[in-house]
Amino acid sequence: GQPGTGAGDLARPLALRKSKRAHIVGVAEGGAVAAQFALENPARTRSLFLAGARLGVTDADFQAMNKRVWLPDNHNTMPHFAEVGASYRGGNPVGTKGWGEAAAAAHPTGPAPAQPAGAQPLTWARLKTLKTRTMLVCGDCDHYSSAAQNRLIAQHIPNRELAVIDEAGASAYWEQPDAFNGLLIDFLRRN
Question: pTM of the full predicted structure?
Answer without folding.
Answer: 0.92
